[in-house]
Design goal:
The complex is a heterodimer. Chain A contains no helices and 11 strands. In chain A, the strands form 2 sheets. In chain A, strands 2, 4, 5, 9, 10 and 11 form a 6-stranded mixed beta sheet that branches. Chain A has strands spanning 3-6, 11-14, 19-26, 32-38, 45-51, 56-59, 62-67, 72-77, 86-93, 103-104, 108-113. In chain B, a hairpin with a 3-residue loop joins strand 4 (31-38) and strand 5 (42-50). The chains are: A mainly beta, B mainly beta. The A-B interface holds A 31-32, 34, 36, 41-46, 49, 51, 89, 91, 93-107 and B 4, 31, 33, 35, 41-45, 48, 50, 55-56, 58, 90, 92, 94, 97-108.
Chain lengths: 114, 114
């Protein structure tokens, strides 16, 4: 069955450093992968999308890579700030017909300290 | 532009009862998806509706059902509630639910079953 693994332990880093979050998957050939941020008591907020034929995407301080051979995505936040503290979720999406059916990882909690 | 709204935000029910949750998508969005989020299982896809038709379905029992109205608003219903149904129920909307399209999540309805 499809399985998505993210760092189960919380990630604690110092302000200004780069946070790197990992998303590994098995038994899946996604058409695209998305990263979301979720704050306590709120719904996930979309951050970045990368398609299966793309290697890297950037948006401001965020960067995502996608390696379909390794079945892995890395999500980087550079110059991290305490406001970046949240849970980050990766989600895999399918192709036509099942495109909207996202399969989520369990998330990684990021804590950025001063 | 108003975001996705969900009502009610909080709900307490007892085992055996049924519950109906409502979701109003962003104006112009025709695809509405529902997810269940629990600490143990994370975010799990329930179903997706597009143009009043269920287009995708997750692996949940028949006690979980939904519908979509002509104005794209959606409701989900859970009958014969069980303790394990306690969760945050999230809905997400997108224009057409096509591959790679951003899904916008609502704040969720937190359901507690006693």
């Amino acid at each position: 069955s499809q399985k998505i693994e993210q760092n189960s332990e919380a990630l604690n880093i110092q302000e200004g450093k780069t946070a790197t979050l990992t998303c590994n998957y098995t038994n899946y050939s996604p058409a695209y992968l998305q990263w979301y941020r979720q704050d306590p008591g709120r719904g996930p907020v979309f951050l970045l999308l990368i398609r299966e034929n793309e290697k890297e995407k950037r948006k401001e301080r965020l960067k995502v890579t996608f390696d379909t051979t390794l079945k892995q995505s890395l999500f980087h936040i550079t110059a991290s700030q305490p406001a970046d503290s949240a849970t980050y979720l990766c989600a895999l999406g399918g192709r036509t017909g099942t495109a909207s059916k996202l399969t989520f990882g369990t998330g990684t909690r990021l804590q950025v300290t001063l | 532009k108003a975001g996705v709204t969900q009502t009610p935000r909080y709900l307490i029910k007892t085992r055996g009862q049924q519950v109906t949750l409502s979701c109003s998508p962003i104006s112009g969005h025709r695809s509405v998806s529902w997810y269940q989020q629990t600490p143990g299982q994370g975010l799990q896809f329930l179903f997706e509706y597009f143009s009043e038709t269920q287009r995708n379905k997750g692996n949940f029992p028949g006690r979980f059902s939904g519908r979509q109205f002509s104005n794209s608003r959606s409701e989900m219903n859970v009958s014969t509630l069980e303790l394990g149904d306690s969760a945050l129920y999230l809905c997400a909307s997108s224009r057409a639910g096509t591959s790679g399209e951003t899904q916008y999540f609502g704040p969720g309805t937190r359901l507690l079953v006693l």
